[in-house]
Write a sequence for this structure.
């Protein structure tokens, strides 16, 4: 069972915490992690690109010149792909790029990336992040105290002041326990989690 230090918002160690091996100590499955990232990026694609084929562009109804005797190559339409204003060969059409991962595969991929962050000492547990007011400077001070720049901050539900305070900080993203995903965990150098959020993650994914 992994044991990590718990810090306060001043960056001082105030205790330790045991992490559940069922979530933070699994065998890392790189294939599932890759599939989860590809799936997430594919599902974001709009797939709305469109170009017209020769059957969709206007004009070109009559044969431009007779078949033989002109010295030109034979042509059947001025809307063939080799003509200016002609259609596009194998033109892109709107399509859905998304594909589905099974629920167990998604959970296994998320556990894998959380385990790797713990193993790399890039998983920081904070006892709590509570502010009396919404102030970006307060949140930036917490990051400075923890010596972290690019971070994913996982907060417990209802912590609105901290969530809004982090909104204007570059390279920082906040998430709830039910919105964390493989791509974000990999994208940010460090994952900062409150003790309450860790308990919820263990309860949901263990």
């Amino acid at each position: 069972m992994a044991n990590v230090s718990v810090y306060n918002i001043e960056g001082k160690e105030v205790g330790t915490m045991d992490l559940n091996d069922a979530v933070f100590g699994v065998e890392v499955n790189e294939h599932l992690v890759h599939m989860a990232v590809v799936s997430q990026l594919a599902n974001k694609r709009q797939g709305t690109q469109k170009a017209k084929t020769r059957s969709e562009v206007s004009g070109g109804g009559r044969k431009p010149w007779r078949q033989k005797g002109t010295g030109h190559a034979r042509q059947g339409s001025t809307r063939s792909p080799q003509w200016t204003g002609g259609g596009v060969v194998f033109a892109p059409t709107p399509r859905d790029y998304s594909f589905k991962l099974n629920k167990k595969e998604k959970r296994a991929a998320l556990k894998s990336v959380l385990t790797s962050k713990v193993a790399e000492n890039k998983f920081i547990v904070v006892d709590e992040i509570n502010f009396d007011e919404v102030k970006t400077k307060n949140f930036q001070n917490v990051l400075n105290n923890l010596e972290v720049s690019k971070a994913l901050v996982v907060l417990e539900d209802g912590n609105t002041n901290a969530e809004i305070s982090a909104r204007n900080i570059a390279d920082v993203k906040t998430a709830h326990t039910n919105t964390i995903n493989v791509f974000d965990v990999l994208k940010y150098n460090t994952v900062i989690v409150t003790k309450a959020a860790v308990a919820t993650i263990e309860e949901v994914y263990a």
